[in-house]
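quick q for whoever's on today - can somebody do inverse folding on this one?? i tried earlier but teh output was garbage lol. tokens:
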């Protein structure tokens, strides 16, 4: 233990910050999974579906009403205006809040039709905009903490939110008549308290709610990325919204439970991607494609094994964590988890597009995936029900990856580069194996002996290649530094 603490103290500030921000991300994003056994027992599938649809709309409307000013434009502004950091936060906060209030005013004027479009009660339609307003100052404050490697305050706030939200939510739900509304509104209240504190802090330091130059800079930079951000949210959220409208909130709730399970993989892959992307840039810059291809093969294989392991153990975890009413969600998890594998895969190609500043290809690929997802959902949910959405998700993320691969080749050719910095034959074989095994596993879910045989084979494979796996992970961590 002393050796570990000693090593930890020797880490530079960026490495320590990266570690703790990953922990904060897991706490924040993983709370829905951690509390799943509790709320799945006190909420019906229909009520769970309502809460899921609510958060889907928060994610989508937030893209439009805030321009995601805490995203890429934030870091660029902090670098371009190093002496105006407080003004940047206050000004960006002012821009996002002003636009969101404008959206909110329109929603209030047309509350009835907007609520019907959302498929939510009026009180939750109003709550969508209140929650977004609360998120703006918190996200900007957090972005500054990340930029300056100040992780302690972020961790403290994450812990408070992680404890308060489900704790108060539980007592609100068990004592309320309208349980879905109670669950959502408690979360909004917690977010609002934190958001107000951050808003006041940001304004006191910045005193710059409106700044023409900074508002113009943020709007011009991010407006072109809105289609990309929006398409990504549509790709992530449209299945639940369409299931809610076409099949009902109960099926949306069942599907959302499965989606939460499958997205566990993304908590890991997001961290790996953020560490591996700088290595991709370095390798391209230093013409070290062979080394990059070898490392990429190892990373893709590790993620594939994780995805298949998650798919294999799902039936047993379900029976332990969830009531029987949610068991139909089991059949959704294999294809959605395979889709999560492709969510990890496409940034390998997208990073090359970003490196050569060909952002329009990123937006084009996102739009193709989003449009295809809506069309396929509309066709197949009608025929096969909510389970079809899982397979359309897999198909669209696979298409998304293929589009990025095609665009990556175009970008490389445009820049006079003939070779591809990845071993596409190996990546293709692994990807096809993930699809085949994940779909085949749905047949084996009723045969525990065969399923556990596959699990044993995966464990044996991991043990046999343990050194290679450890070396790959260590390499990723080093390059991420």
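ok took a stab at it. sequence:
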């Amino acid at each position: 233990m002393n050796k570990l603490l000693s090593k930890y103290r020797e880490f530079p500030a960026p490495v320590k910050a990266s570690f703790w921000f990953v922990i904060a991300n897991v706490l924040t994003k993983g709370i829905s999974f951690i509390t799943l056994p509790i709320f799945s027992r006190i909420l019906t599938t229909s009520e769970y579906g309502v809460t899921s649809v609510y958060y889907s709309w928060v994610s989508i409307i937030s893209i439009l009403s805030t321009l995601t000013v805490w995203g890429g434009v934030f870091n660029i502004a902090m670098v371009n205006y190093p002496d105006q950091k407080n003004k940047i936060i206050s000004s960006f906060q002012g821009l996002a809040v002003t636009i969101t209030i404008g959206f909110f005013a329109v929603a209030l004027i047309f509350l009835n039709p907007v609520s019907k479009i959302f498929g939510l009660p009026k009180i939750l339609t109003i709550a969508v905009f209140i929650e977004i307003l609360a998120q703006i100052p918190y996200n900007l404050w957090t972005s500054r903490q990340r930029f300056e490697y100040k992780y302690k305050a972020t961790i403290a706030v994450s812990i408070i939110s992680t404890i308060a939200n489900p704790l108060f939510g539980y007592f609100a739900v068990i004592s309320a008549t309208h349980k879905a509304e109670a669950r959502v509104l408690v979360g909004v209240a917690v977010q609002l308290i934190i958001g107000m504190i951050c808003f006041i802090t940001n304004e006191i330091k910045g005193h710059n709610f409106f700044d023409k130059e900074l508002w113009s800079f943020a709007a011009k930079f991010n407006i072109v990325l809105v289609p990309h951000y929006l398409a990504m949210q549509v790709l992530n959220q449209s299945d639940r919204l369409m299931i809610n409208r076409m099949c009902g909130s109960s099926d949306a709730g069942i599907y959302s439970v499965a989606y939460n399970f499958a997205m566990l993989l993304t908590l890991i892959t997001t961290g790996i991607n953020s560490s591996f992307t700088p290595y991709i840039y370095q390798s391209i810059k230093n013409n070290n494609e062979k080394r990059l291809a070898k490392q990429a093969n190892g990373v893709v294989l590790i993620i594939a094994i994780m995805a298949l392991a998650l798919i294999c153990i799902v039936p047993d975890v379900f029976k332990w964590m969830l009531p029987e009413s949610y068991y139909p969600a089991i059949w959704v998890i294999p294809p959605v988890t395979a889709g999560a594998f492709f969510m990890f895969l496409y940034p390998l190609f997208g990073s090359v597009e970003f490196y050569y500043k060909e952002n329009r290809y990123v937006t084009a690929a996102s739009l193709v995936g989003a449009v295809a997802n809506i069309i396929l959902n509309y066709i197949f949910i009608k025929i096969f029900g909510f389970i079809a959405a899982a397979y359309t998700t897999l198909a669209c993320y696979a298409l998304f990856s293929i589009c990025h691969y095609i665009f990556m080749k175009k970008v490389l050719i445009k820049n006079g580069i003939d070779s591809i910095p990845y071993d596409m034959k190996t990546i293709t074989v692994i990807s096809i194996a993930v699809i085949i095994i994940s779909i085949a596993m749905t047949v084996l879910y009723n045969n525990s002996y065969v399923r556990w045989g596959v699990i044993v084979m995966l464990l044996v494979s991991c043990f046999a290649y343990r050194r290679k796996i450890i070396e790959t992970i260590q390499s990723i961590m080093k390059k991420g530094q």
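fwiw The chain has 22 helices and no strands. also Residues 289-321 form the longest helix (33 residues). so keep that in mind when u check it
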